[in-house]
Amino acid sequence: MQTDKSNILACYTDKKGNIEAVLGFERSQLLYDIKNYAYIEGHIMQTDNLHAQHTVQDVGEEGNVDRVTRILDLTVAQCRELLYPYTKNEISNHELDDVLKEQPTYGIVLSLPADFSQTTLNLLAKLIHEYIVCYTVADWMSITNPAKADTWAVKAEDMESQIRVALHSRVNRYRRRLSVF
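User: That's the sequence. What structure does it adopt?
Assistant: Structure tokens below.
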């Protein structure tokens, strides 16, 4: 069982008073969760075809993990775009490549207002982790067990929706007016 580590790698205040937060997602933890879900899906498959079960469960094996790496890269890029107002940065690398690289940690740098809630940041980190995992499992199921792909796609969409709600509903402080009633 994996120990629960914080996904917040760093937090500091910049010269403008904004908070720079770095969310980090360890590849090993993402793969652990993806492999677990794939194993469970393969184990509960209603089939006598052991090869089909093995195919679903072998998400982390050599060759198969290359597909997972591509989807992890894609999903992290989607998360950066989803968090756009806070991840916006100038183009620093004018040469982009499509070389497959296994990163030990996927990072998302956020520039947040000084009054951004720590609990919201913690929630976002957990939701993003789950979104990455569900999206990747949905992609793997679309290849190996299409009947379950929609289930995982819906879970990923739900996580994306929760990210949007957490991000946009807690941007500003809410002040409750005093009332005699």
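The chain has six helices and three strands.
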